[in-house]
Every structure is written in structure tokens, then in C-alpha cells.
Amino acid sequence: MTLQDTQNQRDERRLPIDRVGVKDLRYPIQIRDKDHSLQSTIATVQLTVDLPHHFKGTHMSRFVEVLNSHGPILHVDNIRDVLEQLTRKLQSTCAHVDFEFPFFLEKKAPVTGAVGLIDYVARFNATVENGKMDFIVTTVVPVTTLCPCSKAISARGAHNQRGHVTLAVRCSKPMWIEDMIRLVEDSASSELYSLLKRPDEKAVTERAYDNPVFVEDLVRNVASRCEKDANILWYRVEAENFESIHNHNAYALIEKHG
């Protein structure tokens, strides 16, 4: 019995679709890290292509088929192959893949050396269009910031808060996620740890007090470090502080243009 292929029917509205596909698909992947060579993690995946105006719909099953064709664990080096397969199988000129996953680092407390794992959000956003590939890496780094104004006007202490810095980069050659994290953490009042003993807590608290930054300082610090790295062709840095004495958050963004 021949089954009707509704997706391939002609659409007369003459409206192309920029992106169509599947999202929120969970899939195991492997990521290279600087210490252990490979790190296994679980990514939330979005796969999309452009749809010409004359097609009624796309073939959703083919997105999953392409991903599954790489076996139970996808390596980051296979991303270009995934994109090119999508364009071929779905007769598209442009394909996009977006991976978001937790990335773990083992960190030692600053005084006692107590070891704990801390997780960061990482993203890969890749596009192939007419054979040309674009690749952006993003990390979301939690940090501590201490308010310079509060320190200047207060007789005792200063308010501080946890914040998230989101750094996205486009590079001439691959940049380690760990190096992106270090760049951001060096720009804040203090980095975060999962395990701190009392001597460590004292050191972290005093470090933050000695390095106060506004949210504006934070994005400028990160942007300045990006500007000095010749490997970084483009960047976007966002900082959001979860304010401890306000019922709103503080936010700033710098993006390199051109």
C-alpha cells in the first residue's frame, strides 16, 4: 500500500519558513576538556532547516534519523557532518544545530584545597548555509559581585550577590570552555566553589570585598579581556546580578560589532 506524503504537497501561500525542525530532544554527547580528554554529558538539542515556500511541510523523522546515525554518543567534531546531512536529506540550503549541556569542572577551594565539582551551562550553535559553516560557543558562568557603592558608603561591610555572566564567542580556532570560564571568573569580584571550609569562606569573602564591581564593570572587564585575545573574532557578554537588597536584577550587555 502506498501512503500519501502530505509534507511534499505544494503550498500556494508562497511564504518560506526560516527554521523548522525539532527541539528539546535529549541526546548523549562527548566534549573534549583540558584535563580528562573527553567528558560525557547529556545535551538538549534543536535541529532545524529552512523550508522553501513551495513545500507544505518538512520530514520531522529525518532530523532524528540524522542524529541517531552517529551512534549512541555524538562527538562535537561530528557537528558539521550532522548539518550537511540535514541539508541533503531535507533539500535545504541552510541547517542549524543547537546543543545545550552541563559542563563540569573539578575545582579546589582556595585555602584548604578541598575538591568539589561545579557545573556550568555550555552551548554550541552551529549553522551551515550554502556550504559555509558558522560556529558560536557560549558559556554561562556563575560569579560573585560586590557593590562598589555599598562598600564606599557603608561603615560595616557591603552587599554582594551571585550573578550569571553569559559569554558567547566566535573564534578563528577552537577555544576551550575552561578558558572561557576562567576569563569570566577573573573579571568578577570572586569565582564560586561547590565546597568551602571556613578558611576558604574567609578568603573568598575577603577577595570579593577587595574586588568590588558593578554589573557595568563586569561586562567591561570581560569585553576587555576578549579584545586582547586575537583568537576571538566576535563576542557578546551579558551579566545579570541577582540583587540581594533589591527586588529586581541588574543587567548589562556588550557585543562586538563589525
Could you characterize the architecture of this molecule?
- It catalyses: GTP + H2O = 7,8-dihydroneopterin 3'-triphosphate + formate + H(+).
- The record marks 147 as: May be catalytically important.
- Keywords: Hydrolase.
- Pathway: Cofactor biosynthesis; 7,8-dihydroneopterin triphosphate biosynthesis; 7,8-dihydroneopterin triphosphate from GTP: step 1/1.
- The chain has 258 residues and is α+β, with helices and mostly antiparallel strands.
- It folds into 2 domains: 1-100, Roll (Urate Oxidase); 109-258, Urate Oxidase (Roll).
- The chain contains 6 helices and 10 strands; from the N terminus they run ββαβαβββαβαβααββ.
- Strands 1, 2, 3, 4, 5, 6, 7, 8, 9 and 10 form a 10-stranded mixed β-sheet that branches.
- Strand 1 and strand 2 form a beta hairpin.
- The longest helix has 14 residues, at 215-228.
- The N and C termini lie far apart (56 Å).
Query: What name is given to the CATH topology of the largest domain?
Result: Urate Oxidase
The number of strands is 10
User: How many structural domains does the protein architecture include?
Assistant: 2
End-to-end Cα distance:
56 Å
Cα-atom radius of gyration: 22 Å
**What profile does the largest beta sheet have?**
10 strands, mixed
Average pLDDT across residues? 93
Q: Helix segment count?
A: 6
Shape: elongated
Instruction: Give the CATH superfamily of the largest domain.
Output: Urate Oxidase
Note the run of SSEs as H and E.
Answer: EEHEHEEEHEHEHHEE
Counting helices, strands and paired strands, the structural category is alpha+beta
Low-confidence stretches: none
Protein name: GTP cyclohydrolase FolE2
Family: Belongs to the GTP cyclohydrolase IV family.
Site (May be catalytically important): 147
EC number: 3.5.4.16
